[in-house]
Amino acid sequence: MMNQWLAEIGRRTLIMGILNVTPDSFSDGGQYNSVDRAVAHAKRLVAEGADLLDIGGESTRPGATPVSEDEEIERVIPVIRALQAECKGIPLSIDTYKGEVARQALDAGAAMVNDIWGGKADPTLLQIVAERRVPIILMHNRPNMEYGADPVADVISDLRASIKLASDAGIHRKHILIDPGIGFAKNRELNLLLMNRLADLAELGYPVVLGTSRKRFIREVLAADVDQVLGGTIATTVLGIERGASIMRVHDVAENAKAAKMTDAILQTKTTGF
Description:
Distance between the termini: 40 Å
Structural class: alpha/beta
CATH topology: TIM Barrel
Shape: globular
Helix content: 40-55%
CATH superfamily: Dihydropteroate synthase-like
Low-confidence stretches: none
Number of strands: 8
Order of helices and strands: EHEHEHEHEHEHHEHHEH
Number of domains: 1
Mean pLDDT: 93
Strand order of the largest sheet: 6-5-4-3-2-1-8-7
CATH architecture: Alpha-Beta Barrel
């Protein structure tokens, strides 16, 4: 029952609302780091059209200070429990690369895991996901930016390695989603290239999750502050859908949901007779 949303993939684009319960996220740090404010914001995201909510307790922006496992658990578990009661029927994703955080989040009511290290940071996380039979987003990431002549091929190779780790751990193919990791160990040029060649990733045969919302490369291209790049984010949403993305992970749900709905309508119209 909890994974019924998976059946929607391929039928329409799903919108994943971002809920950061951290004091230092790059675009909304500190705004929702109390249970009441987090729940209120989550309700707003759902009302605006979010199909899923992704809850993160550790900022992953460049230069962010890592937090302990205990602190991350303290931040996210009360929010997940509250959302179970207040946002019934909305699948909750835990944005973590730590096995114990994932375990407790799933116990509290989360329905999937979003791992920015693609299962490579903590092997116990993949085991937990396999045992619970829940979906996982395997995001591309690297500890450095040392790519070869074709960096997109390198990203795909890294994702294949993550997929193999997940498969070897016993995670069912239908529970694996992939994310190109826009903004992670990538400069502006590589982010733009990945967007341009997103269809290459889609050819791997796994649903693609795309998280470009308010990212630095958009701000750099537009020479704009973080609160002035909605138009740029929507451009990446539309292009991402056209090139095979299935789930858009965004801050501004209402506007991106409308863009996704319109893009879906255009792409799904195949009739030639009028």
